[in-house]
Amino acid sequence: MGSNNELIEEPPSTPRSSRPLMIVVSAPSGAGKSTLCNRLIDEFSRVSYSVSCTTRAPRGAEKDGEHYYFLSKKEFKERIKNNEFLEYAKVHGNFYGTLGDTVLYAMEEGKHVLLDIDVQGVNQLRKSLIHLDSRNPIRRGFTDIFISPPSHEELEKRLRGRGTDDEKVIQQRLDNATAEMACAKEYSFQIINDDLETAYDELKRVILSKTERG
Fold first, then answer.
1. What pLDDT was estimated at residue 213?
2. Which end of the chain has fewer surrounding CB within 10 Å, N or C?
3. How many helices (H) and strands (E) does the chain have?
4. Which CATH class is domain 6-50+111-213?
């Protein structure tokens, strides 16, 4: 067996000592989730974001199949009826969702699939997993991680430090954070992002622990 990093980085074309993971990460806004996830993607080519579906129109240079799968509302609703989504939600009039086949195909190619979704989406995912065969790669590789700020006060400091939101938006994000952090105990792993380097090292350790068990 190679080094720990090779468990994440090992090329899909070679025999693998670890099974692919579906890495699900949630956090309140301002906890540093995107920074940690993007860093993981940048460092390890075997880890990639899942491409979600949406009914909104493409923005700017967005490409179908790369940034999102752009579907009509009729097609999206048909896929809902056919139970094709692991999770989905309606946000500001548009639907967003994760197709089971999209995740499964990536995992069958040896990729660790990373999903950046909220606690409601993760709850849907957990319910979807119940209906999957125990040998299904998605069920076997499911790994849920919650990223927390060190304190509510630090989270407020970070949100205000951005300088991008008005007071109403900040208060809404703080209220949402309280509800989201109450769900942290439902996750298999919890990481407190007090120091970015420490939090990132812990994130990698979580993934390595899961791949080694594979």
1. 65
2. N
3. 9, 9
4. alpha beta
